[in-house]
Amino acid sequence: MARLLENIERLCRDKSLLEILEKVEAGKRISFVDGLKVLKSDDLNAIGMIADYVKRKREGDKVYFVVNRHVNPTNICAISCKFCAFGKPKGAAGTYEMTFDEILAGLNEELREVHVVGGLHPDWKFEHYLDIVRVIKNAYPDTHVKAYTAVEIDWFSEISGLSIEDVLIKMKEAGVDALPGGGAEIFAEDVRNKICAPKTSSQKWLEIHKIAHQVGIPSNATILYGHLEKYEDVVDHMDRLRNLQDETHGFFAFIPVLFQPENTRLKYIKPFPGSYDLKVHALARLYLDNFPHIKAYWITLGEKTAQVALHFGCDDADGTIIREKIIHDAGAPSEVGHTRDFFVKTIKDAGYTPVERDALYNVVRVYN
Ligand code: V47
User: Do the Cβ atoms of 293 and 253 come closer than 8 Å?
Assistant: First the structure.
């Protein structure tokens, strides 16, 4: 590690980044202003080296992945967000509702995680959403179920009249092992109002994850970036998450999700350069010092940028997924799924050691 540090100091062009290096080396927290510095700097190489240094200090050369499946049970949604191409009103062309048999048809014993996220169906009862989890858990008791974002949980509370805490307790009893990180989008209220005004507020999203952690359900957190946000909004988003994690320690992973514009009401937004993707991921590793894992989400980054992001602080390549629909409806540039072998090869080719995990980050197998 000492050699790595010397190299970073020697190769760093933007000497203001060395202050950040000093802090992370000393195990000190970086500030809001430091966060802005990372996003504003054009020394991409140094930013990558510093984030990789932190990643290696925490995890060595391990990069995790999971054999998982995404299930999006319905795209019928009672609200409409400008950034979303997936949700549709009841009765619109192209809507679907999966039966239990259809859900089970895509699953098998090999899966370590089933990720369930979908629309806010105006007619489905909370019990139906619980039954989806029960059906999966009954068929595959050893598979973890990571189900329902804070936005869905907010909806369940509204349609059932139960408190958020009671909703979460019922979800846990039905077999939910963890919550996915979706619905966080961007916490900065002015931008949130522009891209997803009808959605659960930032404060409520954070409150729901806090209660989940208190009742013993761990969770992930996302940021939707690459739309109308400013650099300050990205750092602010990470800052609010870092503060909550200080209180609860219930988050596993942070996932930057790159906005895909096709078929959305924000399709006029021009693509950002790849350097911005890499800086957001590196900043996540540097800023979120209390988050165990940072994911390179290949669905939105595309497989190649996701592989490069492993050199920018990411220690998790997410999973095999198959059948992702939410982001592909908005033109995601990636395949709909990949094999275990694909992950082993991609991670090895990037110079890291693939580690297969389950949803709770227990190690299943190390591919030396
Ligand atoms: O929050 C919707 C995103 C998210 C678009 O917890 C879009 O491990 C880009 O929850 N462009 C849901 N993104 C995805 C999600 C998730 C994904 C990966 C891992 C985990 C995890 C959770 O999908 C939403 C929203 O930000 N999304 N539309 C779009 N046009």
Answer: yes
Tell me, what's the pLDDT at 1? Answer: 82
Residue 278: which pLDDT band, with cuts at 50, 70 and 90?
very high
* Token digits of residue 263: 């078929």
**Residue 101: Cβ-neighbour burial (10 angstroms; 0-12, 13-18, 19+):** exposed
Contact (CB, 8 A) for 134 and 174:
yes
Atom of ligand 1 nearest to the CA of 181: 6
Q: In this predicted structure, what is the pLDDT of residue 4?
A: 86
196, 259, 326, 329: residue to mutate for ligand 1 pocket, most atoms within 8 A of CB: 326
pTM of the model: 0.97
Tell how far the Cα of 257 is from the centroid of ligand 1, in angstroms: 6
- pLDDT at position 68 over 90: yes
Note the helical H segments in the chain. Answer: 2-11, 17-25, 32-40, 44-59, 100-105, 126-139, 150-160, 164-174, 189-196, 202-214, 231-248, 274-287, 298-301, 303-309, 340-349
Asked if residue 183 has its Cβ within 6 Å of ligand 1, the reply is: yes
Task: Using most ligand atoms within 8 A of CB, pick from 327, 329, 334, 358 the residue to mutate for ligand 1.
Answer: 327
d(CA 161, CA 212): 18
84, 115 contact by CB (below 8 A): no
Hey, what domains does the chain have and what are their CATH numbers? Answer: 2-57 (no CATH), 65-366 (3.20.20.70)
Return the structure tokens found at 59: 């995890």
Q: Which residues of 69-86 are buried (b: 16+ CB within 10 A; e: fewer)?
A: bbbbbbbbbbbebebbbb
To 5 degrees, how large is the angle CA 132–CA 100–CA 93?
Answer: 100
